[in-house]
Amino acid sequence: MGFVIPSLVLIIIDIWYSLFSFKIVKISFSFVVICLGPLFLLLLILLIFAFYFIQKKHSSLICKDGSPEIFDDEEMSTIE
């Protein structure tokens, strides 16, 4: 279950590059990178800030860490 998100990201990236490699999209990849790349990064930054402020307003959206202070490998080293 831990590799679901990385595998989905790789699949999306593969599909994105395939659109340009097989000439499905008529716009050149360099145009997309130069013009739309910075716009995508700005939108991503705005999304992160929006999510941050939404979390500050609604504390129920914050995931609490319920794990103990000591990790499993540290417990094993203190037992020896």
Structure in words:
- The protein is an all-alpha fold.
- It has three helices and no strands.
- The chain has helices at 4-21, 29-57, 72-79.
- The longest helix is centred in the middle third of the chain and has 29 residues, at 29-57.
- The model has no long low-confidence stretch (mean pLDDT 81).
The structure class reads mainly alpha
Tell how many strands the DSSP assignment holds. Answer: 0
Which percent band covers the strand fraction?
under 5%
Order of helices and strands: HHH
Helicity range of the residues? 55-70%
User: First CA to last CA: what distance?
Assistant: 33 Å
Q: What would you call the shape?
A: flat
The biggest beta sheet reads: none
Question: How large is the count of helical segments?
Answer: 3
Mean of residue pLDDT values: 81
User: Which runs of at least 5 residues are low in confidence (pLDDT < 50)?
Assistant: none
What would you say about this model in short?
By secondary structure, this protein is mainly alpha-helical. The protein has 3 helices and no strands. The chain is flat and about 50 Å long.
Fold blueprint:
Layout: H1 4-21, H2 29-57, H3 72-79
Feature tags:
80 residues; mainly alpha; 3 helices; 69% helix; flat
